[in-house]
Amino acid sequence: MEWYGSPPPPLPPLVTIGLAIVTQRVRLSLSVGLGFGALLATQLDPLAAATLTAGLLFHVALATDNILITAFSLLVAGMVAVIEHNGGTIALVRRAERVVRGPRSAMAASWLAGLFVFFDDYANCLMVGTTFRPLYDRHKLSHAKLAYIVDSTAAPVASFAIISTWIGYELGLLADALEGVPLAGGLLVFFVSTLPFRFYSIYSLAFVGTVALSGRDFGPMARLEHKTRAATLAFEQRTTLEPARSAWLAAGPILSLLLATLACLYLDGRASAGVSGPANPTLLSIMGAANAYRSMALGAGTALLVSIALSLSSRTLTFPGALRASWHGMRRILGALVILYLAWGLGEALETIGTAHALTNLLTNSVTAWSLPTLTFLVAAAVSFATGSSFSTMAILIPLVVPLAVTLAAGTAGPPVPATVGAVLAGACFGDHISPISDTTILSATASGVEVITHVRTQLPYALSVGALSLCLGYLPAGFGVSPFILLPLGVGLGAALVWGLGRTGETSDS
Q1: Terminal-to-terminal C-alpha distance of the chain
Q2: Contact between 393 and 358 (Cβ < 8 Å)
Q3: What is the CA radius of gyration of the chain?
Q4: Cystine design at 165: which of 120, 264, 383, 493 (Cβ 3.0–4.6 Å)?
Q5: Each residue of 1-27: b (16+ CB within 10 Å) or e?
Q6: Rounded to an integer, what distance in angstroms lies between the CA atom of residue 36 and that of residue 148?
Q7: Nearest to 144, CA basis, from 450, 434, 413
Q8: Which helix (H) or strand (E) holds 217?
Q9: Which residues contact 123 (CB under 8 A, 6 or more apart)?
Q10: Is the separation of the CB atoms in 307 and 83 below 8 Å?
Q11: What pLDDT was estimated at residue 8?
């Protein structure tokens, strides 16, 4: 659709984000942005805009994937509440205290856990956030720090991992965009060749690790950390009065969530790959063929049942008590789910008025081979920031920029094609990290127990620092042919130097 004969400006997301920053009220801001987007789509007809708004919300509410994501989130929240009520969370914290001696090791453990849960960013956000929140309380670390570590690990590691819920989606888009292009070794070998060009994803993972291991912070995060450590947390007072329980009351459901999700991914993917693919599909094709959200919902349901069964067998909760606890946990995230659905509705409105396509038109004028990776990274970040969706960004940009890169490479998959593909996928993660309407931003904040705006405000300086690194020691020199294997050590090293140079330590030494 066109807005009075020209591409529509990205006003709805700008209005939404600006209002959220000013008012600190995300639901109100998303509602206004959604309504404004609907007004643009209907040429300022209020009645038609109201009808369109209701239709968009109805559409996202009934979308199968959204229903499965909602079910997964509610079931995980119910499981977490059950293990809180049966004493498993406190027992697990006490057991973890044998290894986690202080704030730095608590942050390092959450970072490593995020790397371990590599198969999906949603699962990563909810599992790591809810598991480590009481441990952060115990060591007087802010929930915003946990949200940063969770958010800045989840999408980068899932987008980078060879086996993840992202891989099938990425390969499918690339297969269409590279149709007819000769690929030495096939599509998978080409995909692997793009991994070193995921500069933002790699630098982000290293930057998070440096922040966690050094205990240094700068910007709003440093001030919030100092304030948090200066306070006396109620959690610490509460835990000293609780009787000791078995750590398996918490560890059992958490492990069952991980293992059941992976098992469902494998079984579902094998069944799908067996129907539409070769007789002996590879593990990569199996994971790519799986219905990720269905597998996650089944895994979360299994984990909730395990938490209830362990509560009953240990006699820490009755069956009615376990059901009440799970319902209490589900109610706690209803507000976050409202935000999530409003964000999805806004994304639908932006798609209707063509905001993302208007941004991508910036790439079509006077693009050169050396500048394409840099421009792609910036536009991918802008689209992801405006829409709040990495997957939508990839779906919009890959069909546009990959054929353009192939043309500049004289019909081959040589430079700058791998760098351009890496720029799309990394830029999508970058935009997600600085957007208050991103699904992973919302889930990370919710799982970690912090307001969305607080999470975005404290994460923003870190994400912008890594984004600048990705340009200066990533896509700009890569466009001129500098090897990523030269750039990556320099970028990781400079990122660590920034943390040590700009950051200051609080009371973060491990005892």
Answers
A1: 61
A2: no
A3: 23
A4: 120
A5: eebeeebbebbbbebbbebbeeeeebe
A6: 30
A7: 450
A8: strand 216-217
A9: 72, 117, 257, 258, 261, 296, 299
A10: yes
A11: 52
Distance between CA atoms of residues 202 and 492, nearest Å: 8
Structure tokens that stand for 100 in this block: 């986690």
Q: How far apart are CA 463 and CA 481, in angstroms?
A: 26
Q: Give yes or no for a contact between 303 and 76, defined as CB atoms under 8 angstroms apart.
A: yes
Amino acid, res. 174:
L
Confidence of residue 33 (pLDDT cuts 50, 70, 90): confident
Are 124 and 154 a contacting pair, CB within 8 Å? yes
Does the pLDDT of residue 482 top 90, yes or no? yes
Closest of 267, 258, 310 to residue 291, by C-alpha? 267
Q: What is the mean pLDDT of residues 237-243?
A: 45
Question: How does DSSP classify residue 231?
Answer: S
pTM score, whole prediction: 0.73
Q: Among 48-57, 74-83, 150-159, 208-217, whose mean pLDDT is lowest?
A: 74-83
DSSP 3: B
Torsion of CA 67, 311, 92, 114, to 10 degrees: -20
Instruction: Give per-residue burial for 285-324: e unless 16+ CB within 10 Å, then b.
Output: bbbbbbbbbbbbbbbbbbbbebbbebbeeeebbeeebbee
Distance CA 387, CA 348 (A): 9
Q: Are 377 and 47 in contact (CB under 8 A)?
A: no
Inform me whether the pLDDT recorded for 97 exceeds 70.
no
The candidate with the shortest Cα–Cα distance to 289, out of 273, 265, 267, is 273
Token pair 């720029």 in the structure block, residue: 423
State the DSSP string of 317-330: S-HHHHHHHHHHHH
Query: Which pair of tokens denotes residue 444?
Result: 């990370």
Classify each residue of 417-427 as buried b or exposed e, where b means 16 or more C-beta atoms within 10 Å of its C-beta.
Answer: bbbbbbbbbbb
Question: What SS3 state is found at 504?
Answer: strand
Tokens 């990563």 belong to 124
Q: How many CB atoms are located within 10 Å of the residue 134 CB? A: 19
The secondary element (H helix, E strand) that includes residue 311 is helix 292-313
Residue with tokens 């009371």, as numbered in its chain? 507
User: Does position 194 have pLDDT exceeding 80, yes or no?
Assistant: yes
Cα 82 versus chain centre, distance: 25
CA distance 300 to 327: 15
**Is 287 within 8 Å of 273 (Cβ atoms)?**
no
Give CA–CA dist 363/371, Å, rounded.
10
